[in-house]
Amino acid sequence: xxxxxxxxxxxxxxxxxxxxxxxxxxxxxxxxxxxxxxxxxxxxxxxxxxxxxxxxxxxxxxxxxxxxxxxxxxxxxxxx
Length: 80
Ligand code: SF4
Hints:
The chain is mainly β and about 80 residues long. The chain has one domain. The protein has strands at about 20-25, 40-45, 50-55. Iron/sulfur cluster binds near residues 16, 46 and 70.
């Protein structure tokens, strides 16, 4: 009997903001009301912060895929 092939998907991204495993969470500075709306970008796959104390308009600039990304493969170490 022939084995059924499973479909595979490839994710090509260069920024964690485009990854389904990222989350944007509140990260206010308790000592500075001016930064009350700061956020952090968190990776739910690696359980690590990608960036913290980030201005909301700056999340994409601070969320390049890190070298510790669990989706990086040895066959393609520069792209997820
Ligand atoms: S570190 Fe990797 S898995 Fe985590 S959010 Fe970024 S691209 Fe996705």
